[in-house]
Design goal:
220 residues, Leucine-rich repeat, LRR (right-handed beta-alpha superhelix), 5-stranded mixed β-sheet, two-stranded antiparallel sheet, 38% helix
Length: 220
């Protein structure tokens, strides 16, 4: 989820069922109001340290992660003590009584979690059907073929291979990687949109392209 470092204005993030274990990339998303992280691989509530700096966060879904532990009450109290501005936690409204109780029963988190060298990202999983170890592809790790397949499904123009491969010679590696990551993220998220949503995206893209072309003409 490192792409989130480049999306400081994002307001809603849905990363449920993605094998995520590290929330550090989210601490720069200052406009984030809703965060859905159900059924991931978040092992420690210390990861909440990175969410404490988000002033607009009001909805959090963290259930079905290892960090929830065997004691639901202690888990909920700890989350609310560290994120007292939440209005809903795990699809359940937060009450004033809970916020008061959290000051007593919750644990305050004052430091980021310790990292092990092999932690973060997808862990290897074993396929019971094939009997082989496979590594699922992360949400934002896509090849050119994956990107073109997504575009083809959405009836979009494919990225020319020669243009795609020339990015590294035209731009720095950092900016090239950033642009490709943003492009892949947008294309994947577009699969979740209905016809109305896609029309909005199309209209916005056309306006942005026209503005860019106008700017280029003025510079010439």
């Amino acid at each position: 989820i490192s792409i989130c470092r480049d999306l400081p204005n994002i307001e809603v993030i849905t990363f449920s069922v993605n094998g995520i274990s590290d929330l550090e990339p989210l601490h720069q998303c200052q406009n984030l109001s809703e965060l859905y992280l159900r059924r991931n691989n978040i092992r420690s509530l210390d990861e909440l340290f990175y969410l404490k700096t988000l002033p607009r966060l009001r909805v959090l879904w963290l259930a079905e992660n290892p960090c929830c532990g065997p004691d639901p009450h202690r888990y909920r109290m700890t989350v609310l003590r560290n994120l007292p501005c939440l209005q809903k936690l795990d699809n359940q409204a937060v009450t004033e009584e809970e916020l008061s109780q959290a000051l007593v029963d919750g644990v305050e988190i004052t430091a980021p979690p310790a990292r092990s060298p092999v932690e973060n990202g997808w862990s290897s999983t074993t396929s019971s059907a094939a009997g082989a170890t496979t590594e699922p592809q992360s949400l934002l790790s896509c090849s050119l073929e994956d990107t073109n397949k997504t575009q083809d499904d959405l009836d979009m123009k494919l990225v020319p291979r020669d243009k795609y491969s020339s990015f590294s010679t035209q731009e720095t590696d950092c900016s090239c990687k950033k642009r490709n990551n943003v492009l892949n993220a947008i294309l994947l998220l577009m699969e979740e949109l209905d016809a109305e949503g896609l029309e909005i995206i199309q209209q916005t893209a056309v306006r942005s392209l026209q503005a860019l072309q106008k700017k280029e003409l003025q510079e010439e």
